[in-house]
Amino acid sequence: MKFLKAGLFMALMSIAPMSSADPAAEKEAAILLSTMGIEQAMTETMSQMLNIQLEQNPEIVPYRQVMLDFLNKHMSYESLKPELIRIYADTFTAAELREINAFYATKTGRKTIEKMPVLTEQGAQLGAARVQANIEELEAMIQAEAERIERLQKKDQP
Q: Using CA atoms, how far apart are residues 52 and 135, in angstroms rounded to an integer?
């Protein structure tokens, strides 16, 4: 779940101004965001990411509230909602969004929303386990590349 939310958070950080979308598509996009629980996911993600930063950098703990205030101002769902709606409305037509909303209104759709974070986290855990199981190979590849780069740099020196 954390990985999906972190991914969502990172995607949201890269939002740029978009073109005007169809008002009907925007309406459907707003419904979709609500159905998907994006507001709660963003709030949880911000909190988790801030906590990770504080754990990794204890010297910034006294500034926790300042950082939280900043994130709430610039990265909250409410502050990003218009752009998020535009992203979906620019990507999907109103008819497509209605179909997506209709699917998410079904029992299977609701289960998809509920289970997707778990499935994403399990997939991420699988990937992390695979990397860990083969970490020696990765380290050897990195070492070989570092040696190659060093040889090239020595060759370029007078």
A: 24
Q: What total number of domains does the chain contain?
A: 2
| Amino acid at residue number 79 | S
Confidence band, pLDDT 50/70/90 cuts, at residue 45? confident
* 15 and 59 share one domain: yes
Would you give the end-to-end CA distance of the chain in angstroms?
A: 53
Q: What's the predicted TM-score (pTM) here? A: 0.65
pLDDT in tens, 8-27: 555 555 544 445 669 999 99
Q: Concatenated DSSP letters for 90-137?
A: HHS-HHHHHHHHHHHHSHHHHHHHHHHHHHHHHHHHHHHHHHHHTHHH
Q: Which helix (H) or strand (E) holds 81?
A: helix 77-91
